[in-house]
Amino acid sequence: xxxxxxxxxxxxxxxxxxxxxxxxxxxxxxxxxxxxxxxxxxxxxxxxxxxxxxxxxxxxxxxxxxxxxxxxxxxxxxxxxxxxxxxxxxxxxxxxxxxxxxxxxxxxxxxxxxxxxxxxxxxxxxxxxxxxxxxxxxxxxxxxxxxxxxxxxxxxxxxxxxxxxxxxxxxxxxxxxxxxxxxxxxxxxxxxxxxxxxxxxxxxxxxxxxxxxxxxxxxxxxxxxxxxxxxxxxxxxxxxxxxxxxxxxxxxxxxxxxxxxxxxxxxxxxxxxxxxxxxxxxxxxxxxxxxxxxxxxxxxxxxxxxxxxxxxxxxxxxxxx
Length: 321
Known about the structure:
The chain has 321 residues and is an alpha/beta fold. Helix content is 35%, strand content 26%. It has two domains: 4-187, Rossmann fold, CATH 3.40.50.300; 199-319, Heat Shock Protein 90. It has a seven-stranded mixed beta sheet with strand order 4-3-5-6-2-7-8, sandwiched between helices. A five-stranded antiparallel beta sheet has the order 10-11-12-14-13, sandwiched between helices. Strands 1-9 form a two-stranded antiparallel sheet. Helix 6 (208-221) runs antiparallel to helix 7.
């Protein structure tokens, strides 16, 4: 299945609004040079900077910033605490930006995701996250996000995908539009095939207990139990309930283990129109729309593919062991 999602529609110029900029670099020295220049420019404009990078690069930046007077304007975010699910990154940035905005500050960010040891599914969702940033911040207060990518360490396909998601490019010290940006619907790669042995179940209204029982049987067979199993069952119940409510009163479940994860796949005839579903923190007074947010918080990865023509597929991944 190859689906598309509508255009991001954000940030293609260098004026006010969200500036989403790709920074290809080669090696640590070039990373430091670009990051420190970006921070210096922010300080000159009295802007605050949030940095979310690997621990080794964070330590390098902290060492360079000590004694320069820049440390007070730079904060660091430990994204490892958010887990490997990219859907948790947008609300983390929104929380930080909203707090600084209420304090009257202009902000910038530096974000470099870890691509090491990611599964094919995880890498695909991380690419999708980069594209969704343009949509999530299309109407946000003006801010600037620099995304470094190490050309010496990453596969060319990773860099090509990054170019398609970033309207702006930092190259040779110059900021400008990126010729690689594609302002078109996002094209998903094919979902991977399930692994044998495979558990399957068609369900309808009144059969949520059967869904939970089938997932529990497969999960315990692969050693998933206790709190993690209970969390998965909450997520499973939410997605299955959505299939019944919005997918014509029925759905289908498939459960299997692949690599180091248990996967629960739900299919129905409904259509999820919001690409950002589950990725925006619900407001206190919000009515509805909390279910998929909860699912994203409980699972290690969530893949959603939905079109009006083909219906909806939701895959929940939970790490084993």
